[in-house]
Design goal:
There is one protein chain. By secondary structure, the protein is α/β, with parallel strands linked by helices. The chain has one domain: Rossmann fold (3-Layer(aba) Sandwich). The protein is 48% helix and 14% strand. The protein contains eleven helices and seven strands. It has a seven-stranded mixed sheet with strand order 1-3-2-4-5-6-7, with helices on both faces. Helix 3 links the parallel strand 4 and strand 5. Helix 2 crosses helix 3 and helix 5 packs across helix 7.
């Protein structure tokens, strides 16, 4: 899904195991505010066919960047939730001259520990043997706040988004996540305006204290905690999320 104006765009990078539809409320707001954007689906998620070969966060990042570059976008603001944040770090390493702003959401700079890596490969084995349903149940439980869990419509929508993920896409993404690089050492190289946003109720995936490490390492970064959200603030509490990000984006993209 692409809305392009001028040579600027916000790139929306989704969490695992969701797709671009998790940014439905941001897309609506961007359309209203005439903010150009590119909403990405990773291979095997949403409308993107499953990959035939393994990929890394680096090769996925290259693909996403060139999608934007080939349609003429020269100035980027990146928004990434969870897995999307890992892509943002890689984008900064390789293509920083194109990046004008960063919005890290419910993500971390650290690589997986050996324990976490083993857990991802155990998940891969279970998905290959038993399918994806158990994983979707576990992700909904881990990634949502008590407030979100009480909203049956929102939970149904979230499940529908996750169910569009293919098992092959899930397996390939888990491998890429397990093998990603540590990014703590590049935090002090980031010099563009940066927001770092955590879900206040994220106790199981990226607690606010972990997310805040990113803000602490980037000079001038602003840190926010959003209530009534856990690992998916753009989806769980979009009103509060949009209040933070829309003025930030408009200020960066304003006419010079």
């Amino acid at each position: 899904m692409i809305k392009i104006g001028l040579q600027k765009a916000v790139i929306l990078l989704h969490a695992f195991p969701l797709n671009k539809d998790m940014y439905h409320f941001q897309i609506q707001a961007f359309q209203k505010e005439n903010i150009p954007f590119i909403a990405v689906d990773y291979p095997g998620f949403g409308d993107n066919p499953p990959p035939e070969v393994d990929y890394t966060i680096e090769t996925l990042t290259d693909s996403i960047f060139w999608q934007a570059h080939q349609i003429g976008v020269k100035e980027l603001i990146l928004i990434g939730d969870s897995m999307g944040g890992y892509i943002m770090f890689q984008m900064w390493k390789k293509y920083k001259e194109y990046i004008k702003g960063l919005i890290f959401t419910a993500t971390r700079a650290e690589a997986d520990t050996e324990e976490a890596k083993k857990a991802r490969y155990a998940l891969i084995k279970r998905v290959e043997e038993n399918g994806k349903d158990f994983l979707i149940d576990a992700m909904i439980e881990a990634q949502t706040s008590p407030k979100t869990k009480q909203d049956e419509k929102k939970i149904r929508t979230l499940r529908c988004i996750m169910e569009k993920a293919t098992e092959k896409g899930i397996v390939k993404a888990l491998k890429a996540l397990a093998e990603r690089e540590d990014n703590t050492k590049i935090l002090d190289t980031i010099y563009v305006p940066t927001l770092v946003i955590a879900g206040k109720d994220d106790e199981k995936v990226t607690p606010p204290s972990i997310v805040k490490h990113i803000a602490d390492g980037i000079d001038g970064a602003k840190f926010y905690e959003i209530e009534n959200s856990a690992h998916l603030p753009p989806f769980e509490n979009p009103d509060e999320y949009n209040k933070i990000i829309i003025p930030f984006i408009k200020e960066i993209f304003k006419e010079k």
